[in-house]
Amino acid sequence: MAEPGNELASISQEAAEAAADITEAQRPQERRKRVIEFARSVATSSARVAGRGTRAARRAAGFGTGWLSGQVVDMAPRLRVRNQAALRAQFPDQSAEDIADALIEGAGRASAAAGAAAGVWAMVPLVTTFPAEIAAETLVIVGIEIKLIAELHEAYGVPAEGSLPERMRTYTAAWAHRRGVFTIPGGVVFAAGSPLARQLRRRLAARAGRSAFSLGPLLTGAAAGAYLNGRETRRLGREIRHDLRRHMISGSGGWPPDAGTR
């Protein structure tokens, strides 16, 4: 029989795919369906583990922020991020500001859908799977937000440097600090006990706390989750955009960035 932790070993890959699919979905029904599919997958795995005891289920579900932070670091390089060329092809004849508006609004809708769908799924009477549902919603929303941060940097033509894993680790750090990548102090270090690792865990603890609202009674949890998630993701997007604007204004390139260059 597989160990409890192995039951959910592929969550980071699933979360990355779900976050991208939900963000880029054109219709609310598509977003809702994709969230429920992911939540069901995680809850089903947790339910199998729950047969071996509640404590094992909680460990496997990753109720601790240490497990969540490891999943986020593993998930980030798997996220499907549109580069500047892809964004300009998808939003033709639009400025960087217009594209940023569309990205923030799209991510806000995706986060709201994640909260609403997870809240509805929580009506299924499997109490021992609630920690798994919190983990599932948290990972999807963090994926949506890291993807948003990466694509905002692409839209403004100031992507992080390095290989794909290096860039995505940097955007994860930007998520933890709620800042553009050029303002992250001390480099990108995820070693256990490092300041960034601690900051990531603190942010994930707060994010998981908001996810718990989605598990409220009946549809009240869905409504609360949708509202809180959408509001927080839009706020994060605006903060990152503000940082990027400030960087572009103070930098040598001036403002706005040229639409045809990186």
Jot down its keywords.
mainly alpha; 11 helices; globular; disordered N terminus
Given as residue ranges, the uncertain stretches (5+ residues, pLDDT < 50) are 1-8, 49-62, 122-130, 217-221, 252-262
Helix content: over 70%
User: How many individual domains?
Assistant: 1
- Assign an overall shape: globular
Biggest β-sheet description: none
- Output mean pLDDT: 75
Query: Terminal Cα separation, in Å?
Result: 51 Å
The percentage of residues in β strands lies in under 5%
SSE pattern, N- to C-terminal? HHHHHHHHHHH
Alpha-beta classification: mainly alpha
The beta-strand count equals: 0
Query: Total number of helical segments?
Result: 11
Any idea what the radius of gyration is? 18 Å
Task: Give the helix/strand layout.
Layout (H helix, E strand, L loop, with lengths): L3 H4 L3 H14 L3 H23 L3 H8 L3 H11 L8 H7 L5 H26 L8 H26 L8 H14 L17 H18 L5 H33 L12
Helix pairs in contact: 2-3, 2-5, 2-7, 2-8, 3-4, 3-7, 3-8, 4-8, 5-8, 5-10, 7-8, 7-11, 8-9, 8-10, 8-11, 9-10
Structural notes for this entry:
- With about 260 residues, this protein is an all-alpha fold.
- The chain contains eleven helices and no strands.
- About 70% of the residues lie in helices and about 0% in strands.
- The chain is globular and about 50 Å long.
Short description:
The protein has 262 residues and is mostly helical. The protein has helices spanning 4-7, 11-24, 28-50, 54-61, 65-75, 84-90, 96-121, 130-155, 164-177, 195-212, 218-250. Helix content is 70%, strand content 0%.
